[in-house]
Design a protein that fits this description.
This protein has 507 residues and is mainly α. It contains 21 helices and two strands.
Amino acid sequence: MIPSMDFALMGPELILIAAGIFVLLADAFVPREHGKDDPRGDVNDPRSLTLGITLVGLLAAAGYLCLGRGDTTVAQTTFEGLFIVDAFGDAFKLVALAGTILGVLLSDTWLKNQRLPTGAFYALVLFATTGMLYLLSATDMVMLFVGLELMSIPLYCLAAALRWDDRSVEAGVKYLVLGSFATAVMLMGFALLYAFVGIHTGAATTRLDLVAQAVMEAQAAGSLPGYALMGGLLALVGLLFKMSAVPFHMWTPDVYEGAPTSITAWMSVSVKAVTAAVMLRVFGAPLLEALQLDGILWVIAALTMFLGNTMALTQDNVKRMLAYSSVAHGGYMLVGILAGGDAGSAAVLFYAAAYTFGNIAAFAVLVFLSRAGHEVETFSDLSGLGQKMPLLGVVMLLSMLSLMGMPPLAGFFGKFAIFRAAVSEGYVVLTIIGVLTSAISVAYYLRPVIVMFMKEPAEGAEIATGRAWSVRTALVVAVVVTVLLGLMPSGTLDYALESAQALASNL
């Protein structure tokens, strides 16, 4: 029997795949008539064409989500239920696409500084983003694995993009080895759950909804075997690795430091947002309780918030500081996942959006200040630059204030929504830990601002000027959205709540 196949439901994913193929073709066949140093500009240079195709593809995918879907409050499925389209998945897809668009804009300047070809780079970004979108629509363990690998393998390559840089190669290899191990652990968990469903129901399936139903039925009957609990734990571990949750976070600072700054910015937001959405869809609060994983996730969330923030205090490298900060933000998202329900899911969605724009604004400042042969990484590289470039200093200030959760910026309302959902579900102690660790973050988030405005520039330090339109656009968009989400959060929060309700109705 031929399964039902509605490719229209996969419109955004197919658009990105096509864009990736066209990028590779343009890079291979468009003649390089003018080099990038030619005074006539990059008109016939494949760099401009590949960047344009990439942005058009990403914007077309986002436009399809906004205008071409119709009503997604009622879920639609295809490929025998392996692929689902609903408002929840589409909302997170928009967040992931927004992060990718900003990351691509930042990458343009970095690629020119490093004199690297753009075709393979942008194609890998597009294919990784396609994997993210498939993950957000996956309703089957096999589909989940395929989407995860489609996202992860290009990321391993992008982390090692600077093949002559030992740190970049180390980042790629470390990410590959540890990521592969985490995926293998998750697959073992899937295998145990598959075996359990086959034994319990007599009809083995990889459908996530049927697996959850079998687990909850067995738990209610008091007949849930230990290997099913172990399967759920191993599957959760694989996702916690992608979330950079403690104790599966040790790869994060090394990979973020060694990877290109623009890729670090993109990875730190989009991968985290997608993983959080997958955890909400796969491990809803009832399934967490049935698998007896809620207590374990409580401890992991607390440790992730605490260690992420405390380790960030000791860093002298800005990228490593932001890496540990990313670990802490993953902990806050875990609090929302643990709270569950419409409020918890909506809070995670809003938080993911706020974190995406706030964090990319900080990385955009680093990319803006970088120049050929030197990336801004240490705090000393930022010394005094706020005095010479006050607008850039203001952008960094707003970004840091949002990330620490200072009103009236986006980060404050994200944390408020998550903590409110957690308190309503009885996680008062966990909320107190979250608030206290947020207070710790003030110490390191203000450090780059203090260095930029209150320190003298290092002797002989150069100031980057004449940055390309792409990095300027990313800088402006990221900081403006960060401010607007804080000043007018109600509309976004309402949209997040509607999307969360769509998830609840489809579970």
